[in-house]
Amino acid sequence: MVDTTPVIAAAVRSPQGREDGVYADIRSEDLVVPLVNEILTDTRLSGGEIDDFMLGCAQQRGEQGNNMARIVSLLSDLGESVPATTINRWCASSAQAIMSASDAVRAGSRDAILAGGVESMSRVKQGANRENIHPRLAEDYNVAELAMGMTAEEVAERFDVSRADQDEYSLRSHQRAAEATDSGRFSDEIVPIDTPDGTVEEDEGIRRDTSLEQLAELPTVFKSDGTVTPGNASQISDGGSMTLVTSRDFAQQHDLEVLAEVGQNSVAGVEPEVMGVGPVPAVRDLLDRTNREIEAYDLVELNEAFASQCLYCQRELGIDEEIYNVNGGAIAIGHPLGATGARLPVTLIHEMAKRDADRGIATECVGFGQGAAIEFSRP
Known about the structure:
By secondary structure, the chain is of the alpha+beta class. The protein contains twelve helices and twelve strands.
């Protein structure tokens, strides 16, 4: 009997760069091509053995338009025979790529799919297309309050998350990311990226010298009497991430290492004004589908869009501190929108191997009020 269980046979990412930082002169495609080629080299697969290529990207305009996935397939070692599609679920775009790939494999319609994401927030600026939002949306919502920073303020105010707690969480993110970098915990997942100024090997945004005192001095950004600052929000960033999703049969036939099995996935909708709470219903639906409690999972990666929503989601879902974003997150590492949904599983899967963990969840909130979650288990 054919085993179409979807598995992850490769998982890599680029180092992440700050906005207008090390990747300022690097197009989005060139953040992804090295990841694709690295996977093909490591797995000894040819483009002809890949059935499809799914690439998440949140801001599909300008350089990131024109079905960027197909452009990458033509620029990379995949070649002309590999079809490609670019997917947009905003911050969960590359998570959706993995979900769609694993669903296709599970259904038996594909055997091997490259699924990941990319975003250059240096070259395609965030929010540049807000003027194109449908005017009727303003009849139901104050569009200004749907900006992600304003939703983080709403979460903090509505659910009583203090500025002090947000700053403390942010410091912990930087400390954990710095320790993970310095100890080599990211080395298995990072593919160095060549730039005109040299090779980038580490995440650019980690602030090793920050402190609670420095974080407390930062001004708020979105509301004068608010609590959200540049220090307790995710960093605007550039980066890419990539996984190889195959059937278990395909992995066995091609002698591929199975890093993890892809389990259930879930998406959810929430009030756009508090989009940061999206992981709560997404994870709860996932738990219902698996008939498990959160305590059954050894690690949880939840995108750190803002400290306020991270703390709220952690509290509501009852996630233990010792398994939650153990290597830091987007507050320190960065949040290239279209890449993050796959970056979380990449980091999660490698950390699960290091800890000999059985199960993990990767989850994120999504702009305009959504959440997404994917379950992974180790063989």
